[in-house]
Write a structure and sequence with these properties.
By secondary structure, the chain is mainly α. About 50% of the residues lie in helices and about 10% in strands.
């Protein structure tokens, strides 16, 4: 019940004056508006739900695929943190449609640094050395292909 109260509070501007359906896999919540208030928590939460036009629909967990999928995300929920630096890098090096420059360039007055080229032989592991040399080769080809594409667009 607390989850419903919190969700309705967050989505309040979009829900006021509109009929909506709350889908749940808790069968007891289906009878929420028909039961007597027996706990202090219910007496606090139920008045917060009274001004809305909604229906509560019960769906078994396997039938309610969205809720079922979200309930399995527990083990994955902490992995998003490792992607934050990549998201920041992507944002700061992408050209903004309104300013026509990158946020990095807007703050520092110069274009963001490109990926550094690898100095062969500086890695301690042979496989890493080969990987970084291959990466540099791919970057060179990519730059050349982009240059050719730009020249074709100009002519």
């Amino acid at each position: 019940m607390l989850a419903i109260v919190k969700a309705i509070r967050i989505w309040r501007p979009y829900l006021l004056g509109k009929r909506f359906i709350v889908r749940t896999d808790h069968q007891s919540l289906k009878y929420l508006l028909e039961q007597r208030i027996t706990t202090p928590a219910q007496s606090r939460w139920l008045p917060k739900l009274l001004g809305y036009d909604y229906a509560i629909e019960y769906k078994k967990g396997p039938e309610n695929q969205v809720v079922d999928s979200l309930s399995r995300m527990g083990s994955q929920s902490k992995k998003w943190v490792e992607w934050i630096p990549w998201a920041k890098f992507s944002y700061n090096t992408s050209i903004h449609s309104a300013t026509k420059i990158t946020p990095f360039e807007a703050v520092y007055g110069k274009p963001p640094p490109s990926l550094l080229t690898y100095v062969p032989g500086t890695a301690r592991v042979q496989a890493v050395d080969e990987y970084l040399q291959d990466r540099d080769q791919i970057l060179r080809e990519l730059r050349r292909n982009l240059q050719l594409a730009q020249e074709r667009m100009k002519s």
